[in-house]
Amino acid sequence: MEIGEQGSRCGAPLTVLVESSVPPPRMIVFGAIDFASALVRVGKFLGYHVTVCDARPVFATRTRFPDADEIVVEWPHKYLARTDVDARTVLCVLTHDAKFDVPLLHLALRLPVAYVGAMGSRRTHLDRNERLRQVGVTDMELARLRSPIGLDLGARTPEETALSIAAEIVANRRGGSGISLTGAHTPIHHDAASLPAGRIGSVA
After folding, report:
1. For 160-180, b where at least 16 C-beta lie within 10 A, e where not — what string?
2. Most buried among 33, 102, 106, 160, by the most CB within 10 A?
3. Do 35 and 161 form a contact (C-beta atoms < 8 A)?
4. Cis peptide before 103 (omega within 30 of 0)
């Protein structure tokens, strides 16, 4: 960046080196379950600042989540309402309980975050969607919800499930399709500048 004579105090053109930095993106994991512990580790590996939130103090402990940057014992929707999120934030709802999920997702789907995913079977997903519609969530807002959370990897263990969730987050962030590269004719690396306008705003 060059600052001209009128903009510099020394009275002559000046070349300035600008170094900018931003804090790491946030991953907020709601639900202090075994799957969350694995997801926290993967989130840290990907460079996220990871918060675990659960209303149950017996589960949300440092002993169970030693890798988390932050552990919050609070009703999920209340914590989400008061914490800072941005267009890089990813929200992973693993509570799998309507009394937590519905008020939390009611708020989450209206926030300008990069990703909102919720755990549950397809039956749970349909039931949850109906509950969300009953509290005023629109079909357009529901379209933002990744549920069942994660890509289809055939995952069974907490670690495999965490990997499938992380893979979906990266695909969403980079504009990937999530399909196998073998035999595909899509780019291996995706340039954010080439993403559709609607996807650029959701880069994690």
Report:
1. ebbbbbbbbbebbbebbeeee
2. 33
3. yes
4. no
Q: Do residues 70 and 52 make contact, with C-beta atoms less than 8 angstroms apart?
A: yes
DSSP 23: P
For the chain, report the end-to-end CA distance as a whole number of angstroms.
27
d(CA 108, CA 118): 11
Beta bridge partners of 115: 90
In whole angstroms, what is the distance from residue 167 CA to residue 161 CA?
10
| ∠ Cα 115 119 122 (to 5°) | 110
**How many other CB atoms sit within 10 Å of the CB of residue 154?**
6
pLDDT digits (tens, 9 = 90+) for 62-110: 999 999 999 999 999 999 999 999 999 999 999 988 899 999 999 999 9
Q: Alpha helix locations (H) across 88-175?
A: 98-108, 122-134, 139-142, 158-174
